[in-house]
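Anyone up for a design puzzle?
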């Protein structure tokens, strides 16, 4: 897929910033300390100085106004570092898109400008510990309307960024008798300083303690009726307008991570001498390199095709379903091979690979587990022979 000269120049500048300024700061940024906060603040200021801040946010919202398909390409570069999104102000894009499409004028004016400026962060309360997150129709959190006030009660977890967020979009059961079941859930904006909104803990995950994933309880939380985001019972429509483009953004960032792991693997193979020759001379390493290159290239073409379909207003659901589980598998495979080529070094924090590997394992679960994406995609393909993405 070709790029314009303007986009190519922007990609070059973004690559320089991520590789030369964000990546070297990773050891400090990962420490979650005052020093890390200061380092991130410096990077954000630098991104603004370089004209790389909030590029994908619409211009009318105060962003850079880069078209969706162009920003997909940029996200591949941003994804080379897990801190890239925070450094260039793209971390809130899914939420600004969701609010721009479904929010009232008052909601947009209150929340979108500070999000685009990087002054506040959002969070989303969807997953619950008591019910299967892979089936959101089972959401047990409730919201009842009492006059002009919603009363919200529930238990959420893996509410990413809740501790730092200014508000949480809580998905709750408001229409318990509606059919189909997908019409029972609504989205409600809950400021995190509302009485009854409690951060229970940061959930330790795969060596990350504390992590950025939080358990949250909502006990008789009262917010105005006007905090409804979208229509009553339309929570799934609201969520999909966040998750659809978000999955493409994820997959492009995964490509950036996989490409970086691939580069590290090749560099190690070309420099490590063992059993009479360089690793680069071993047949098994040839297989690792070739298979990784093939998987990255295939995932990249599939992801760009899904982005093209979404940008063109076509039915993109099969394409996005395919790239979600294929891209997650690709990411895991490539990083796993890179660790293997590094040997014991790959298991240490002396390279970024062990942290990347943990993030890759998350990818097969968040925004829908692989099994659900395979199942829903297969059903669409079986219902219509014309649903195949190559037709």
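Challenge accepted. My sequence:
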């Amino acid at each position: 897929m070709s790029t314009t000269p303007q986009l190519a120049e922007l990609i070059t500048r973004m690559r320089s910033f991520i590789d030369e300024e964000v990546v070297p700061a990773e050891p400090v940024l990962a420490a979650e300390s005052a020093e890390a906060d200061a380092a991130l603040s410096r990077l954000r200021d630098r991104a603004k100085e370089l004209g790389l801040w909030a590029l994908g946010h619409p211009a009318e919202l105060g962003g850079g106004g880069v078209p969706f398909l162009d920003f997909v390409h940029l996200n591949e570069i941003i994804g080379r570092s897990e801190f890239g999104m925070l450094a260039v102000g793209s971390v809130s894009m899914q939420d600004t898109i969701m609010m721009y499409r479904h929010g009232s004028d008052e909601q947009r004016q209150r929340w979108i400008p500070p999000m685009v400026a990087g002054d506040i962060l959002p969070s989303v309360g969807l997953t619950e510990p008591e019910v299967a997150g892979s089936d959101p129709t089972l959401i047990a959190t409730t919201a009842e309307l009492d006059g002009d006030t919603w009363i919200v009660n529930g238990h959420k977890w893996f509410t990413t960024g809740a501790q730092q967020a200014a508000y949480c979009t809580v998905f709750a059961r408001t229409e318990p008798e509606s059919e189909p079941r997908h019409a029972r859930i609504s989205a409600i904006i809950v400021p995190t300083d509302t009485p009854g909104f409690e951060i229970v803990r940061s959930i330790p995950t795969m060596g990350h303690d504390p992590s950025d994933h939080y358990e949250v309880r909502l006990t008789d939380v009262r917010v105005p009726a006007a905090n409804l985001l979208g229509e009553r019972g339309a929570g799934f429509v609201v969520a999909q307008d966040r998750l659809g483009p978000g999955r493409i953004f994820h997959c492009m960032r995964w490509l950036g991570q996989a490409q970086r792991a691939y580069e590290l693997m090749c560099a190690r193979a070309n420099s490590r001498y063992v059993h009479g020759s360089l690793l680069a001379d071993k047949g098994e390493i040839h297989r690792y390199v070739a298979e990784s290159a093939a998987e990255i290239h295939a995932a990249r073409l599939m992801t760009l095709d899904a982005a093209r379909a979404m940008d063109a207003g076509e039915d993109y659901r099969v394409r996005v379903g395919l790239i979600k589980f294929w891209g997650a598998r690709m990411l895991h495979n490539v990083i796993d091979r890179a660790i293997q080529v590094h040997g014991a070094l790959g298991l240490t924090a002396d390279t970024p690979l062990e942290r990347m590997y943990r993030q890759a394992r998350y990818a097969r679960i968040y925004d829908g587990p692989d099994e659900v994406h395979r199942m829903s995609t297969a059903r669409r393909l079986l219902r219509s022979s014309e649903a195949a993405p190559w037709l």
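A detail worth pointing out: The first strand starts at residue 122 and ends at 125.
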